[in-house]
Amino acid sequence: MTTQGASSSSSGFTHSWKYDVFLNFRGTDTRNHFIGQLYNYLTDKGIKTFMDDELSKGQEISQALLTAIEGSRISVVVFSQNYASSKWCLDELVKILQCKESRHQLVLPIFFKVAPADVRNQRGSFAEALARHECKFMDNLDKVLRWRTALTHAANLSGWTFSKGSELKFIHEIVEEITAHVYKRTHLYIAKYEVGMESRVQDLLKLLDIGECDVRMVGITGTCGLGKTTIAKAIYNSIAHEFEFSCFLANVREESIPYGGLVNLQNILVSKIPGGKDVRVSNVDEGITLIKELLSHKRVLLILDDVNQLNQLNSLAGGHDWFGLKSRVIITTRDRHLLHAHQVNLTYKQSRL
To answer: Is 92 a catalytic residue?
Structure first.
């Protein structure tokens, strides 16, 4: 991958999805080969996937598509040579990016025989198509501007690029990544949502500001029994799908006590990283090197729960340079001085729920 639930009842933090994946693509370019195979492989994996030929006759197609986008956990946008010539594709893309912001959906672009820079800067066939749209929509140039903005935004997201080689191998890579997003992003169990939970989650989301391009560490402090872990779980459930990799390491203090406890925690973390499933580290220094190597180019959400020693942080999240841009690390602890020692300057002091 290159450069980038549960019911929504009383919690307000998760959505009920009708589809796992929505496919946005230019049919004349890709439907009969690339998209057709991608759709088949996804459905073979049990991934509920929407493509527009699922629409029943007589439906208002535009509204049905908008509803399908809103009800999909992930949108896969396939940019191809003639993508921008389709008003339909561009309108879908605008809606997809709106849902990314409002419903925290995951958007994964595929650049199929086109360069990401051509999409981002509207060059080549994208420039020609947008110029035709501007002529056609002289009375509504704001619409074309929205399309341009959406193309630029989507092209800056993490995704895949294919220019030549084995399409089948490329499709398998995509399907494995999507499968990991769908099946490995299990929501963490929370016994109940206390009064005031949602407002506190929103306060923390402001501190995290996941739209910013920096790497950010945020601490949640407070004495025992105030609900620090519950808040961290709610945050994880709310935003984990926004990241290429996410991990909630629970009970760090307790798990670190036995001999080899830190190495075991490192192995748990490594085993969850794509490419690290079959890798084992034998000492802390080896673990530090491997974690940095595997995560330094990924957008990561890592939650370290109940930390009480600096060596735990140094071994599991030693510095901002361990993680790719837009990564977020959340640390729950009773000791705010520990956060200061690790240069975690953004903190949320938890009071009783």
So the answer is: yes
